[in-house]
Specification:
The protein has 166 residues and is α/β, with parallel strands linked by helices. The chain has one domain: Protein-Tyrosine Phosphatase, Chain A (Alpha-Beta Complex). Helices cover 31% and strands 17% of the residues. It has 5 helices and 4 strands. The longest helix has 15 residues. It is globular. The two termini are 23 Å apart. The relative contact order is 0.20.
C-alpha cells in the first residue's frame, strides 16, 4: 500500500541512488522532445514514463502542437498505481517532472487524495489541468462509466468516493 507520495525534479530523481528501490515506484514525466532522465535502475522498483507538456488547454497563450495531459495518460497512471499498490507493506509513490513543481505535484496531489495521504493544502503551483483530468477520469470509473471497473481502481472504496472526487 502507498503510505507516502512526493514530487521532485528530474535532477533530483537522477540523483537517487540506493537500495530502497524495492519500496518506491516512480511516475516519470518528461516534456516532449527533451532528453529522458538518467535514472539509476536499482533506485526504483517500477517506473511509469509519460510525456506531455506543462500546459493547460484553457490558457489564452497556449501554442498549437502542445501535447496535453489526456484521459489516456490518466488511465495509465491509475492502472500503474493499482498494479503496484500491494507490492509491499509500505511503498512511496514518487512523481517527477522537469522542475518538480507543476505536473508532478498534480499527480502527487491526486495520489494523496485517493489514498487519503497528507498533502500540503496550501501548495497551489500544481498543474490544475492534470489534477482535474485525473479526478474526472477517476470519478467516471468509480461510477462505472470509465475504462476501469470500480473494483480495479487504485485506492477505491465506496466509502471514500465522496472525499476523493469533491
Amino acid at each position: 500500500m502507498y503510505t507516502q507520495t512526493k514530487f521532485i525534479s528530474k535532477k533530483d530523481a537522477e540523483k537517487v541512488f540506493d537500495c530502497l528501490g524495492s519500496q518506491r515506484v516512480l511516475i516519470s514525466i518528461k516534456t516532449p522532445n527533451t532528453s529522458s532522465p538518467k535514472l539509476h535502475p536499482e533506485s526504483w522498483e517500477k517506473v511509469l514514463s509519460l510525456e506531455f507538456h506543462d500546459a493547460d488547454p484553457s490558457a489564452k497563450n497556449l501554442k498549437s502542437g502542445k501535447r496535453l495531459f489526456s484521459d489516456d495518460d490518466a488511465i495509465k497512471i491509475l492502472k500503474f498505481l493499482k498494479k503496484h499498490e500491494d507490492d509491499h507493506v509500505r511503498t512511496t509513490a514518487i512523481c517527477h517532472c522537469e522542475a518538480g513543481i507543476s505536473r508532478s505535484a498534480a499527480v502527487s496531489k491526486f495520489i494523496a487524495r485517493i489514498y487519503l495521504l497528507p498533502f500540503q493544502d496550501s501548495y497551489s503551483l500544481y498543474n490544475k489541468h492534470v489534477f482535474s483530468t485525473l479526478l474526472q477520469v477517476y470519478g467516471r470509473c468509480c461510477c462505472g462509466d470509465g475504462e476501469i471497473e470500480p473494483d480495479y481502481l487504485p485506492g477505491y472504496s465506496p466509502l471514500n468516493l465522496q472525499k476523493v472526487t469533491s
